[in-house]
Amino acid sequence: MDSRPVPLSEVGHGPFSHSWETHVRRGGIKFRKYKHEKLSCRIFDRIVHNNSTLRSGLAEAGVDLELVKSLILGGPPNCNEPDLAQKPYIYEILSNNANGMDVDKWDYLLRDCLHAGLGHGCATIDLERFMHFCRPAPHPVRRRCEQPEEKEEEENCQSHGLPNHPSPITDSQWHLSFRDTELENVLRTFGLRQHLHQKLYQHKTVTSIAHMANDLLDLVEPVLKLRSISLRALESDKPEDLDAFLQLHDSLLWDIYYKRFFTLNPDQPVPEALEKAHKLVYRILSRQLYVYVDSVFEVHTDDSCHKGSVNADRIETNLRSVVTCTGIREPFLSETLPPDCRLVGRISLCQDYTWIPWKRFLTSNLYQPENTASQILDEIFSRLPAESVIHDKAELLVSKSSFTSNSTPHAPQFYFYTRTGQTFVYEEPLRVVHAYRLYWRAPACDPAASPSKLSITVAELIKAFDSWHRENIGDRHVKSIS
């Protein structure tokens, strides 16, 4: 019965998994409270309530339902049990908010490696050693000071998406800890996570299809009200609202393709938005995808709020020096970037790079990074030649996606113990990467169209992107940026 919380934590996902959550949360402020973990708890309550056999079996086994839900949420339950208050490490098993080392991460990393043809991931993650050397152990607690200047520093760092440094030690708390010999094994876990993001989750074809899916969901949203269905399932106490959400599944894609819109009056003509969504699904199935053009990356680190730009050709020889200078065993970027990528940001302690001030990257206010994508789009569109086939800015897309070196919202703290029973905390800096990718929403292929026309348009976009990059950041085709 103790193994059940792992699959239960995922039952709250809507169609298309995390892409659905992204679509719902893009609907505005009121939809940003939507989280699949909370919905998992509601569905779990529904399953137990509707199954008397299961309910009695759980009661006989002494299963605390509130504890199960708290494990899913990664926080303490609503009940006030002194035994659980003395064991805070229990909530780090499934959803570890301290450092991201939890069984949920091990599960999806190994599973995704297997189904992506990368093996079981066992060459990177030694799961048996994790289980053998994992122990609860007491560690000092760091509490933030309340001095005005420290509050100001904390607010400044948080505005950049960076954590503040902890304050002096005042108490101790129990955490799930690993033997000190497993430090490399722990850090390799996040090296594998980064590798999957680079090679799988954020592959240019994957992101292209994801943006097409987002566009078709936006098209059907005014008619099907998918965001409202999801939010009502989370907040409403009416069984029918949760039923409506549970009826949503991945076959929604086929419903759109075959125009099976059950919420519409059969005598009513199909709205134009749904026709456009149907064409987008056809393009996905026939591999007529949005054309990926180029990308640029903005890097935030918790040791500096400055921005800069480095040339991709110079990264390979300097990454290992970062490891020796910082004491970090696994570098954030473990391999050379491909030639179609540049890194914009700051790499700690690599003194060979020429730093580019933020104002040369963008003219927007540093505290308003959400405007970045639209500004890049405006500048690139303005650089297209007058004879270009792209006459509308809506034909282009600059997407912003974020990746962090850890799944926690703050710099992770990994807890270890030694053979003699001593404990220590290993702190890793949190690096946040914002990727800005340029796509062309190329029209569906016309059999009579010349392939050379598409090639010419893509070449124009690449030239415009290079011009923007050279003017605002630097020339990526030279060995140094000046």
Task: Identify the notable features of this structure and list them briefly.
disordered N terminus; 482 residues; Hypothetical protein af1432; five-stranded mixed β-sheet; 3 domains; globular; 42% helix; 9 strands
Can you tell me about this structure?
One of its GO terms (biological process) is dGTP catabolic process. InterPro entries: dGTPase-like (IPR050135). One of its GO terms (molecular function) is dGTPase activity. It is globular and about 75 Å long. The protein folds into three domains: about 140 residues, Hypothetical protein af1432; about 80 residues, no CATH class; about 180 residues, no CATH class. The chain has about 475 residues and is of the alpha+beta class. About 25% of the residues are buried. A five-stranded mixed sheet has the order 4-5-3-9-6. Strands 1-2-7-8 form a four-stranded mixed sheet. It contains 19 helices and nine strands.
On the 0 to 100 scale, the average pLDDT is 75
| Total domains | 3
Strand order of the largest sheet: 4-5-3-9-6
> Which stretches of 5+ consecutive residues score pLDDT under 50?
1-6, 144-150, 159-163, 165-169, 303-369
Radius of gyration: 25 Å
Secondary-structure element pattern, one letter each: HHHHHHHHEHEHHHHHHEEHEHHEEEEH
Strand content: 5-15%
Largest sheet: 5 strands, mixed
| Fraction of residues in helix | 40-55%
Strands, total number: 9
**What is the general shape?**
globular
Distance between the termini: 61 Å
Structural class: alpha+beta
